[in-house]
Amino acid sequence: MIKRCLRIKNRRAYFVLLSVYIIFAPLNKQKEIMKHVKIVFAVMLVFTLCTAFTMKSHKLVYAFGVAASFNDSIVYCTEIQVLDSAALDKNGFLPKRDLYSYQLKNYLEYDLKKPDYTCMVYFSESRKKLEKEAVKVKAKYKKGTMVLQAIAPDKFSFKKPEE
Question: How many domains does the chain have?
Fold first, then answer.
């Protein structure tokens, strides 16, 4: 019966047949079968623990956007936001970061009717580092004759780019 179970590729069917076989097997064979079951569960437990520790933890990615134009003295800035389902690649770059800047550009062009803005997206896994970067960027624009205009999070937020 066990040999027949091993040929079955569906794991659920295998465990159902194995449990039925254990229940209805004679008492002297149940002890032998239980030894095998314990060994299998011990191996599965070790495998589960080993794979659980090798999995990477998913860090949040934060981002904010800045849009400036040579034709206008207003610079638009978004708040720091958590990017939905985003992760940095092995080199530390945000995949499809150009699509995030296009989202901001489209918002300015179509919703605020402000064409010809150059949009930049700053990103990091550390919110503190990104806050420091935002302060630096905003300070550079405040030095000149530029006026900073904040974009409210309820008006614009970055969304996961379509694939």
Answer: 2
The whole domain housing 50 covers: 2-54
68 plus 40 within the same structural domain: no
In terms of Cβ atoms closer than 10 Å to its own Cβ (0-12, 13-18, 19+), residue 112 is middle
Phi/psi zone of residue 159: left (φ > 0), alpha (ψ -120 to 50 degrees), beta? beta
Q: Beta strand 81-82 with 118-124: parallel, antiparallel or unpaired?
A: unpaired
What value does the CA radius of gyration of the chain take, rounded to a whole number of Å?
29
Taking the model in full, what pTM does it have?
0.65
| Shared domain check, 44 and 67 | no
Interval 7-57: pLDDT, tens: 545 666 666 666 666 666 665 566 777 777 777 777 777 777 776 665 556
H/E element holding 117?
Answer: none
How far CA 130 is from CA of 87, 150, 158, in Å, comes to 15, 16, 16
Nearest to 149 by CA among 104, 94, 101, 99: 104
